[in-house]
Design goal:
By secondary structure, this protein is mainly alpha-helical. The protein has 3 helices and 2 strands; from the N terminus they run H-H-H-E-E. Strands 1-2 form a two-stranded antiparallel sheet. The longest helix has about 70 residues. The two termini are about 90 Å apart. About 5% of the residues have low confidence.
């Protein structure tokens, strides 16, 4: 809250509270029928109400200025955040590019060795089972692997 807002709110509040005194005098003079006092007290009340309105305008101006300041600060924060994200994205892109250039190329023989576990010792190529065998596996109660293949049976009763 800036000083214009505080000054405006305090001034408006003070002047509205001061208006109560001439209004009380106005009501008292009205009961007595004293028109001169009524006119004079109404003049004071209008004067203080006008000052309260001026202070209200000052508070409104202060609030507009503060809203503009906050908007500018938020815009600057968002721009910094956007710049930071942009830098992170560029850095990540550079890391990905570096990793792609560091990849080693696997030739066909290495692919087969990896894929099928080919024994290349002494120039003999003997194919063994691949590493990724998807055979059905069952386990015994003791936790050992039982590789017996069970064929599913089908029974139909009519």
């Amino acid at each position: 809250m800036n000083t214009k807002i505080m000054e405006g709110l305090v001034g408006a509040n003070t002047n509205i509270n001061i208006v109560n005194t001439p209004m009380r005098i106005y009501r008292d003079a009205e009961r007595r029928g004293d028109t001169a006092t009524m006119e004079r007290s109404m003049g004071y009340a209008c004067e203080f109400a006008g000052k309260a309105d001026e202070y209200k305008s000052k508070a409104d101006d202060g609030m507009k200025e503060e809203a503009n300041e906050l908007r500018e600060k938020e815009q600057a924060r968002l721009e910094r955040l956007l710049e930071k994200r942009k830098e992170e994205r560029e850095k990540l892109g550079q890391e990905i590019e570096d990793k792609e250039t560091d990849k080693t190329e696997v030739n066909r023989e290495e692919e087969l060795t990896i894929e099928y576990n080919i024994d290349t010792d002494n120039g003999n190529f003997s194919v063994r089972k691949p590493y990724f065998v998807n055979e059905p596996v069952t386990y015994t109660k003791s936790g050992e692997v039982n590789r017996t293949v069970q064929t599913p049976g089908l029974s139909v009763f009519i």
